[in-house]
Amino acid sequence: MLRRGSGGLPREVGVLAVVAFVVALGFGIVAPAIPLFARSFGVGTTAVGLAVSAFAFFRFVSAFGGGSLVERVGERLVLATGLVLVAVTTGLAGLATSFPTFLALRSAGGIGSAMFTVAALALLLRVSPPTHRGRAAATYQGGFILGGIAGPAAGGLLATLSPRLPFLLYAGFLLVAGAVALVLLRAPDVVGAGAREDPTEPPVEPLPLRTALRSRAYVAALVVNLGIGWVLFGVRNSLVPLYVTEELGRSAAWAGAGLLAGSAAQALALLRSGRLADTWGRRPSLVLGTATGTAALALLVLPPQTGVFLLSMATYGLAAALLASVPAALVGDVSPARGGRVVAVFQMAADLGAVAGPLVAGWLTDVASYQVAFAASTAVVAAGLVAALALPRAQPRT
């Protein structure tokens, strides 16, 4: 039997949230140093961008393989192996003496990141009871958000001391997170697709991906996660700072204030959103989240105003709190067994949005305007609203 922590959640959920915090904190520390360190090799701006995107690209293309590995050997081993792989490649990247070596190590780190992310989410959804799945996803995402808020401030300071130092520090954080995962994630982890918590129960096979794709709930989760990656991990970080300085005529500090407002609103609303997903229902929670996110982005299509911009960021943060928990809970409802590949494709949807969003929005800004780029992003989020409205009103019992 799984051990329960506070609020009826399995203890493993708290452990995964702590691991997520450590990983996000370390990533936030190293993020400001990546372009500076790449520049130190004397390369151009395009090469610097390649150093940033290589990690995300290899994370995307290797996620499905990581999901297959989860189904074969179990979440705990894949999770810890992924963390160690990112730790080793990050530490060696900080010691690299040439740009090709640095780029290759960053690419390999993306593979480890995919292994960790897919395994952690698959384990979270497997151990969480259906009545608490939204709260479990919200708790896990809360670790990422808090670490992501704390990391960049320290990272900028450390990068001014030495561009190599953040990489070595991040590697150390990841080794700690891997050790925590191996020691504290003690849930039964029988090798094979038929792994189960109670040996008296018949084995539960992972849901085939083809079957999952016939579920409207799973397709809705994919579409919404694509929008989250597009806006939250893509456009918000790439286009918003330029919009503030070039369109609003404000300093970069105002861009930071907007991003902080969004992150703070998301962090404050996250646990409440998880409870809402479990008690109010998946469909109404998803409709509310996607409708709020669509309205928040539509504000940026209006003529530029600083107040409207800050309102948009804060409102989207509230929407992101719901959209960080409800889609994951839907995936767990569809595939409650060890569904590595089902979880992997769900994660790939967000990664695809994070890669495509900045490219498409940046191109639209160049050929048209910021408002057109934000309108396209609003349409992507609105597609999630359409998918949410298409869900049956009475969700089947899991």
TrEMBL record:
Q: Which domain of life is it from?
A: Bacteria
Alphabetically list the UniProt keywords: Membrane, Transmembrane, Transmembrane helix, Transport
Record keyword Transmembrane present:
yes
One Pfam family from the record: MFS_1
Q: Name one GO molecular function term.
A: transmembrane transporter activity
- InterPro entries referenced in this protein's UniProt entry, alphabetically: MFS, MFS_dom, MFS_trans_sf, MFS_Vesicular_Transporter, Tet-R_TetA/multi-R_MdtG-like
- Segments crossing the lipid bilayer: 12-34, 40-65, 77-97, 103-125, 137-161, 167-187, 217-233, 253-271, 283-302, 308-330, 342-364, 370-391
Is Transmembrane helix set as a keyword in this record? yes
Task: Report the membrane topology from the UniProt record.
Answer: Multi-pass membrane protein
Q: Where is the Major facilitator superfamily (MFS) profile domain?
A: 12-395
Any GO CC annotation of this UniProt entry: plasma membrane
**UniProt cross-references to SUPFAM superfamilies, sorted A to Z:** MFS general substrate transporter
Q: Where in the cell is it found?
A: Cell membrane
PANTHER family the UniProt entry points to: GH10249P (PTHR23506:SF23)
Q: List the protein's name.
A: Predicted arabinose efflux permease, MFS family
Organism encoding this protein: Geodermatophilus saharensis
